[in-house]
Amino acid sequence: MSDDISLSEKRMYGETRPETHAYVASGLGVTRVETAGGQIGRFSLDHRCEARDIAGENGEIAVATDDAVLISTDDGFAAAGFGPATAVGYDGDGLLAAGGGRVARYAADEWQTLDAVADVRAIGGGLLGAADGVYGLPDCEYLGLYDAADVTDGYAATADGLYGYDGNWRQFRSGPHGAVARDGERIHAADRDALLELDDDGWRACDLPVRERVVDVVHGADTYAVTAAGTFLVDTPDEATADGRGGWRGRSLGLPGVVGIAVA
After folding, report:
1. Domain holding 211: CATH number?
2. How far is it, in rounded angstroms, from Cα 244 to Cα 242?
């Protein structure tokens, strides 16, 4: 799968943004998408597999599959020796993976088991999201809640609401939420109907170009999201776009079974 639109000759408006490679995980595999300045360019299938989860950090992409944890290399994706996995993520000490009831960290070219946690769905922000709730890293201390779909620093998206954590859980929104992401300035979450952003006035729905369920969101130079139907979305400030008009833009990638998005 590929597309022939290049970003190399597109004129940037205001500040110049370098091209970003975003990686979308799906039932088809890992698809790389080129994007810069609000423009969505070429996309191609980098690795064929049935992906369960994806994460990126410091120039590296990790993928959880039913067969192995894959790590990006100069020559493509290579198995890292963990075995079948349901979730991958990064923290300040590097790569973590979960699968088969085991949570482990990749260090010195080997996996070091941290603890046993069943049915882990997400790893992020020093937390694990699992079927029976949320756990804290690195000791896998049980922190509560139930049926966690996604986690990030201080937040959890669960089957019955979006929660924040400051020693105790506080519910910010009710109803099923499937994704949450946070960096130093931006916080986004997704429920069944909308992608939401937290600002000074509270949670507001993002003005997306499609009415599709968002399954994952991640922050980088811009904010990137992907829908269950395979639409890639990017939100860029006005001053960083070619035409001076920012906001959300999207493009269908035609991917089945989309589960996540990552940038490195």
Report:
1. 2.120.10.30
2. 6
